[in-house]
């Protein structure tokens, strides 16, 4: 299994990767590789994780101008694709049309020995891709739906295809799982078990969303939708701070009413319920994976009074933090 990535003039090879090759370090049940590229037109960070039937890749590209790259692969793969930020497109003879992704979109792609061009339009690109062996993927594909039967048939014919011609929006549950995958600190077999469970859960959410045909046709404009995602990003990057709805709305250039309505429409919950849940998830992670004490964790996530933190944690998880800390 070989991947080759060339620069925009298709003259200089940037990456040639045989999966898994010597650049991957072995961590028991998994293999990992972190790639940093510094180029005249920008920088790239890409983290890869491999184990049986599964390849995970995530990272970001910072550009100072539009970029074109050329890619070749000699293998078949089913890709769970998530574009977290930025616009990109892929053109190949394998597909009948150019496949374009925008921020916060996902789809499932079957690719048969790809050869084509990738274009990155925005200055900041962030994505996560999970590639599964086709036979392994088909084990999870329900057999009682036209959309899934067509996709299975395309795989069997080795005909590159999208599971849906319309991309869907990454919902709140998906974002939480993607974050767990990208920030997993476990090692060896425990990391593999954790990632396998998260990938299965993520695939379940994708298949359910495609089956229900919920393509997030929201009653808000695309411009306002981008502001809603910007508020989510601000919250995730500032869990220890407290802001009013008006403050958050002003940060992204909207008003309180639009923020409340839009956030509920996009994520199915209120701004402050989301913020509280994110704080509690971060606290639980620190309780389980660090040596920080409860007072330190309480302070990190923005609670001045540890008793208030303990009460909020118990309300969320039906146990006090000290029980989890053990």
UniProtKB/TrEMBL annotation:
Keywords per UniProt: Transcription, Transcription regulation
Organism, as annotated: Chryseobacterium piscium
Domain HTH araC/xylS-type: 229-326
Keyword Manganese among record annotations: no
Cross-referenced InterPro entries: Homeodomain-like_sf, HTH_AraC, PchR_regulatory_protein
One GO MF term attached to the UniProt entry: DNA-binding transcription factor activity
Protein name per UniProt: AraC family transcriptional regulator
PANTHER family (alphabetical): REGULATORY PROTEIN PCHR
PROSITE patterns named in the record: HTH_ARAC_FAMILY_2 (PS01124)
